[in-house]
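Why do we bother with holo predictions? Because pocket geometry can differ from the apo form. Keep that in mind while you read this record for S-adenosylmethionine.
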Amino acid sequence: MSDDYRTVNRANWDERVPAHAASADYALDRFRSDPEFISDVVRFDLPLLGSVEGLRGVHLQCHIGTDTLSLSRLGATMTGVDFSGPAVELARSFVASIGERVEFVESDLYDAASVLPNHAFDLVFTGIGALCWLPDVRRWAEVVARLLAPGGRLFIREGHPMLWALADARPDGLLVVDYPYFEREEPMVWDEGGTYVETDVEFEHNVTHEWNHGLGEIVTALLDQGLSITGLVEHDSAPWEALPGLMERLPNREWRLADRPWRLPHSYTLQAVAP
Ligand SMILES: C[S@@+](CC[C@H](N)C(=O)[O-])C[C@H]1O[C@@H](n2cnc3c(N)ncnc32)[C@H](O)[C@@H]1O
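The structure, written out:
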């Protein structure tokens, strides 16, 4: 397969970095003013994540590093990895400007185990819009397995593949399955302005190439790498407004279908442990 998807997707991500850094959702000023502040995403994770104190952690596809910094504030020694140069630069300079220590590495996901030490991390953390950028979930699982130390843990909370398969909001409120649930070689190609945070910025690079991966495919890819699945929880909310027009915001800042949310698994948390 051509690597073209990386060029296209990176242009899209690079351009969105300043708008995300300026947005209320990524809350950089709250990280700056309150040394104990952690992201909504990591706060949601805490009951399943437990203590990360003293762990050597790597955050794959870390974007501008707000969840990475949150895990560092909870006591882990964190490295964040992302293929977007501007995202990594922003994360590095922000963390340095507030006097905290998190390492950030610029790398494609599939190269991460070539640029980072292998079997050296107690925690691989990822998700919330990460897997959809990768064409092959088996290669992702190989990277996870190479990074994990013996007994180390993968923690992923991700948009549910059933959610990714749905059509946009319809006037009748029905949820209609319109896009692939299973991984397919062909990407879904989108051309959409805007982004998932509120911004007035008009973007130029709006094409993306994305893939879905079924829950069974994700679990099987990890099992095939010798990992043991230790938890799989499906949630009735997601941290972004995935179906605009159909969702309401909850007190914990998650988004959920306003009408009969029990119809749909919105996101899931999957945990697995290396032998
Ligand atoms: C929605 S963010 C997920 C991060 C986190 N949930 C957040 O919101 O801060 C997706 C990230 O994946 C990165 N990404 C996309 N494709 C990638 C690839 N092939 N290798 C490494 N990073 C990639 C993008 O640059 C972006 O920062």
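Residues 6, 9, 13, 61, 63, 66-67, 82-84, 87, 108-109, 128-130, 133 surround S-adenosylmethionine (CB under 6 Å).
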